[in-house]
Structure formats: C-alpha cells, structure tokens
C-alpha cells in the first residue's frame, strides 16, 4: 500500500484546515484504491523554531521532537499539503516543519490543497519551490478552495462550515491519483537511497 501523509499546515486556533484535511482523507479513502491516507497535524508535533545544531541534510538529529518528526515523515511515500495562505505565502509553522528534516522528504511526491481569498495559490507556489529543494516531486493538479465559495462564513472570527463545491471533489480525486502514481513511480529511488 502506498502511504500518503496529509500535512495540516496550520496550528492557528479556529483554523479551517482541520475540516479540509479530514475531507481529503475521506475522499482519498473512498476514491483512490491502493493507498492509505493519514492526517499529520503539525499541532501534534509541537516543533519549536528550528533548534538543531547541525544542518538537517546531515541527518544527525539531536532533539527528541526532531527524531519524532523525522520518523513520521520517513514513514510516508508521498504527501498532500493542506495549507492556508498567510501574507502571500505559507504559514511559518509549515515552513519551519519542512526545514527540520531533509533526507526523509527526498524522492517522494506531493500534491496540494490550498485555501484562502485566492484559493491558497501563492502559498502553493511557494511550497513548490521549497519542496523542489527537498527533492520532492510535485504534481500539477491542485485544489484551490475559496473562503467565499467553499466555506459558509457567518462570523469572520470563526472558521465557518466547510462546504466544498461539487467540482472540488473531482479535482481532489485527480490530484490524489497523480500523487499516488508519482509516489509509486519514485519508489525505486527511495529504495536505492
């Protein structure tokens, strides 16, 4: 079975990402055979600002929290990043988590589900650049969720109800299928590493 980690890229109280990540996992389980999907919530790892004395590429992790994160990332064949867009980029907590480890990301595939005023498009573009440096192959298809079209928001200080448009499930399924296919295609590289 191909294992895909769904990385919930925000830890902010009242975040919308939890409902989105659960939707990704549900659609994946229902529509994409041959793969298992598991949500990795950055809030569960409680990573501080990068505090390892050696560069991550050396793989000499001295902190228990880093070792726990490295083990989690190493256990997956690919990833789906669920990210909001903060100030035209990714949340700091997500960038920090990406920077903590290196080899554990290599030769894996990734897809994206962004959300925000512009569907998280700029956050996704930044993630593509970051992940290329970590040797992660990113698929072309992506899901962009609009705060106005895919969420019912009655109070701007609350996350509102996640109500994705009908077309979003098909876009998500396509992206998940591509991510799983690429993760499977990259398996010989991971095994040879």
From TrEMBL:
Q: Which InterPro entries match?
A: Flavoprotein-like_sf, FMN_Rdtase-like_dom, NAD(P)H-dep_reductase
Task: Report the Gene3D superfamilies cross-referenced here.
Answer: 3.40.50.360
Domain NADPH-dependent FMN reductase-like spans what residues? 2-146
Q: Where is the signal peptide?
A: none
A Pfam family (short name) is FMN_red
Among PANTHER family, the record links this protein to:
CHROMATE REDUCTASE, NAD(P)H-DEPENDENT FMN REDUCTASE LOT6
Q: What is this protein called?
A: NAD(P)H-dependent oxidoreductase
Organism, as annotated: Streptomyces cylindrosporus
What taxonomic ancestry is recorded?
Bacteria, Bacillati, Actinomycetota, Actinomycetes, Kitasatosporales
